[in-house]
Amino acid sequence: MPSVLPLDPPQRLVRALDGHPEPAVAARWLEALPALLERTLEHWGLTAERVVSPGGRGSLVVLVRQPDGTAAALKLHAPASSAAQEAAALAHWNGWGAVRLLDARPADGALLLERLHGEVSLRSLAEAKAMLEAASAVRRLWIPPPEGHGFESVEKHTAAEADAMRAWADADVRPLVDEALSLRAALVAAPAESVLLHGDFRQGAVLAADTGRSPWLAVGPEPLVGERAYDLARLVRDRLHDLMASAGAPAVTRRRMSKLADSLEVDRERLRDWTKYRAVESGVRHLVRGGRKDGETLLEFAGWL
């Protein structure tokens, strides 16, 4: 069966694996990746066309053809990312607002997906149009989770983050971290609702599609169950570097946040608080991993709120 061997993994993936919490596990996975790809192609009778590059930071994506010639995309998850959870969420959405899952082998981290236009995301649109389409796309994903689901709650997910933030934060960022932790505690103490969330929703996670269902479909969920404001919080800071360079950036951010909240009927205060918490958490995480510039940018953004 044709394959893409010898495989040259995209550098974005290789760099991300350098910061993996279990370096030895990541190194073994990367070494075994050509064999895993070969085995998966053979299992589903797929013909590989090319590796998507630059691709993602948590998976290898290969454009393939199914036995009948239909175009598809094969996604191989790196260790510490959950193919089973992504597959479960995509199966539950069943193509409604998201890419359709065609088949899965969670034990191998392998997902077979319908092919979208991976090179064209909402980030290719003008800001106002991108935000309008993003709001439309994420609205379709917010449905009740299936009975007996195994998705992690926002409360549990952020509890682990909160513990890490307490351990990581140094004196310079401690006041901002303490505020973010206080906001999180109040939010999870009185949850507003419980729906299935994308978990990492942003403009770059919505791709152009010609499936006939929608011109834009979400990909790459890190599914959680919780309130919609949590899902919107990542979107508020989209195109952050462009935002930082704009005149009156704090006011622009607050207007963006208010418009998103109102258009999607989400409480403004809760959206602001989740946005601040998620920005601080991400900023501290970047600082710890050596990404000082991005970390400081995120913390400055959090200060605007």
Architecture overview:
The chain has 305 residues and is an alpha+beta fold. The protein folds into 2 domains: 105 residues, 2-Layer Sandwich (Phosphorylase Kinase, domain 1); 184 residues, Alpha-Beta Complex (Aminoglycoside 3'-phosphotransferase, Chain: A, domain 2), CATH 3.90.1200.10. Strands 1-2-3-5-4 form a 5-stranded antiparallel β-sheet, sandwiched between helices. Strands 6-9-10 form a 3-stranded antiparallel β-sheet. A 3-stranded mixed β-sheet has the order 7-11-8. A hairpin with a 7-residue loop joins strand 9 and strand 10.
Any key phrases for this structure?
single chain; about 300 residues; alpha+beta; Aminoglycoside 3'-phosphotransferase, Chain: A, domain 2; 2 domains; five-stranded antiparallel sheet; three-stranded antiparallel sheet; disordered N terminus
